[in-house]
Amino acid sequence: MTRPTIVAHRGASGYLPEHTLAAYELGIRQGADAFEIDVVPTRDGVLIARHENDLSGSTDIAQHAAFADRRTTKTVNGHEITGWFSEDFTTEEIKELRCVEPLPGRRSAAHDGQYAVPTLREVLDLRASLSVELDRPVGLKLEVKTPEYFTSCRLPIEDLLIPELTRAGVKEAGSPVEVMTFELHHLRMLRTLSVHAGMVFLVEEDLDLPVPGEGGATYGDLLTPGGLARVHDTATAIGPGRAVLFPPSDSGALGEPSRLFDRAHEIGLRVDCWTFRAENHYLPTDFRVGQHPATLGDMAGLVAAYVGAGLDTVITDHPDRAGHPPRT
């Protein structure tokens, strides 16, 4: 079986608070080929590593009395959210926060309060230093979050991202850094701005959702042969959620593989997949171990099923449980 690329999702986020320098480093030391980072902007135009711009769930911001009056409600990509938002804080203020475990019911919160929120520049520097220390290229999958929304906030992410990629020397073809987003039109924009690195079009598990900026086309529409050709004009890979590639059976067990593996490969697109999590709660019933939802099940077996069907890249919270030895 061909060894897939293993990506530490938000770092080794099954073990440490997500999107911390410590989690990224742990994922690489566990044998991952790359780690994944999501970026959102601050008020002063610095990209930071957070899964979403609402800071409530992944930091201790609620404990900072000085920021209490900045709790607000916003509509982000059609969803009304109440919390504290990255675009309302300076980088200096963000650095006062500490990261916490966003899934404390299933994962340890023992490391809450230990780690600061990193900037993209700090993450790019970590990637470079690990590559030198380990004498192997360390990859980075960089997900741009809701770019259309941030443009409406007068914080266009491309204006903040490209200088950082240029500084790090990673925006050319063959770069160890790839850009990912659920908004295909944003990848097109980056291409016009001379970003030649690999690009991944992420695919929502709800295939009936419209793709922003695509004239009403849904994610499902862009997975047809004609749609994939349209994606291939810009992207080097697709990144569907797990259920798109193996629709679940009625019993909750793993279903049959989709033809999407073959269709994507035939047109020259790599297939990446999110997110493999080892806890029983996230696994098909036939890969669970015991009954407790937080018990770690047979994620390696699940990964093997996907790789056997043609998966190229495994994006996981638990890179050490992906069932594949580190690349040498």
UniProtKB/TrEMBL annotation:
InterPro entries: GP_PDE_dom, PLC-like_Pdiesterase_TIM-brl. It comes from the Bacteria. One of its GO terms (biological process) is lipid metabolic process. The keyword ATP-binding does not apply. GO terms for cellular component: periplasmic space. Its EC number is 3.1.4.46. Belongs to the glycerophosphoryl diester phosphodiesterase family. This is glycerophosphodiester phosphodiesterase. It comes from Nostocoides jenkinsii Ben 74.
